[in-house]
Amino acid sequence: ARQDLLCMPRGETISDVANRWCFADASHFTRRFQELYGYLPKDIATHGDLGRTLR
């Protein structure tokens, strides 16, 4: 999912990524993503691969 956010085409939303990964809604996806990575999906979609700088 993180890679999908990094490569998100213009016009695609976080909800689209959440749906592709079979989450019922974007809120659930966002909570689980933040638990795993420590930052929000919108942060990686906006600023790039934060995982390399935060870990």
UniProtKB/TrEMBL annotation:
Keyword Signal among UniProt keywords: no
UniProt cross-references to InterPro entries, sorted A to Z: Homeodomain-like_sf, HTH_AraC
Domain HTH araC/xylS-type: residue ranges: 1-47
Single GO term (MF): sequence-specific DNA binding
Pfam families, alphabetized: HTH_AraC
Top-rank lineage group of the source organism: Bacteria
SUPFAM superfamilies noted in UniProt: Homeodomain-like (SSF46689)
UniProt keywords, alphabetically: Transcription, Transcription regulation
Protein name (record): HTH araC/xylS-type domain-containing protein
